[in-house]
Amino acid sequence: MKPLLSVEHLVKRFGGLVATNDLNLTVNQGELHALIGPNGAGKTTVMGQLTGELRPDAGRIVFGGEDITNWTIARRALAGIARSYQITQLLKDFSVLENVMLMVQARLGHSFRCWKPALRQRELVEPALQALDSVGLADRARDDVMALAHGEHRQLELAMALAMAPRLLLLDEPLAGMSQGESAVMIDLLSRLKRHHTILLVEHDMQAVFALADQVSVLVYGQAISTGTPAHVQRDPEVRRAYLGDDQPLRSAA
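RESULT FIELD:
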């Protein structure tokens, strides 16, 4: 497969703490690549560098064959990198549809001079409705955001990311705080999305990771200690020691 994203010898320091330590990572076009690791391994720091929120101290990031290491957040977003966050970031006074329309507007460069005319602009409304349909929220389009359950908030964030027409989806713990039922819905949604999108997934739910991922990279102290298929990573003694402190198999939750 052709690499879409390449991280080469990436380093990020916070004072004396090395959060990203000579990291090499490749995400191929069309795959779901999971980035896992114990708490404090540096996963979210990596995501921040990929989106441009954090600037690396060394190394480079190549996306679609271009060196984007020094690109702004906005330029990366318009190039096709979209991210969801651990903590939901929604406009609570807006409807479900309006939240997604704002992302379509950002991608197209439209200006909202008056909100009501914007709601009648097909070039904004139709892509937003399509994104909502892709995550199973088309029937909630006119509802207030605060009327949604937590799991639906996560689905809405995915719709907002999809409205940016991304080439790469960066998903930071999309199952965080979900009930068992909500997690099952999200896993099914991600399984469908991976057929059409390249995804880099940070997730603590090993059941989801092993069910969804084509490739898994294990991050410990800012370094990738193992990369391979889920089966390969589960068998890796170094990975088992990092997670469990012994050589017991790394398993998903039942």
